[in-house]
Amino acid sequence: MVLKILKYGEPVLEQPADHVSDFNTPDLKKLVEDMFDTMYAAKGVGLAAPQIGISKRVTVIDISVGEDETKKLVLINPEIVTREGTQVGEEGCLSIPGFREPVTRAHKVTVKAHNEKGETIELSGEELLARAFQHEIDHLNGKLFINHLSALKRDIIRRKIKKMQKAGEWD
Ligand code: NI
User: Fold this and answer.
1) How far, in Å, is the centroid of ligand 1 from the Cα of 143?
2) Is 33 a known active-site residue?
3) Is 47 exposed, middle or buried (0-12, 13-18, 19+ CB in 10 A)?
4) Which of 31, 61, 126, 130 has the highest local Cβ count within 10 Å?
């Protein structure tokens, strides 16, 4: 089921999400399915549960945007265990549509997480995948990509969004 993606300004997007301790449940299965449906409908490469209003540490990633089944990843309670190098690239977010800015990230990261069965998994990614891991894990910590920008750039974006909110163009 495709759900509504919440936009910047919704408090849940800036709150740390809760750890997941129940696995193999119908609720978790449904949440993950809905998150993939919602992410693909929006043509995104990643989505975190707080973006659909669920404050849980669940994220889905697919850098092939539905082209390659083997690229579908579900990370529950993910944590970055190692970071190497840096990369700078344009980044956007489904919760902040219309804005893209260069963000500095680690070039390669290794992530430890649970899968849907509650098993511990470890994944490594470089470039776009590493960026997606870092962006989505930030979401679970209540952090958005604009938090990585200069205060000046962030204020410009915030002001533009406020104008759109007033005009009813941001909901
Ligand atoms: Ni995002």
Assistant:
1) 9
2) no
3) buried
4) 61
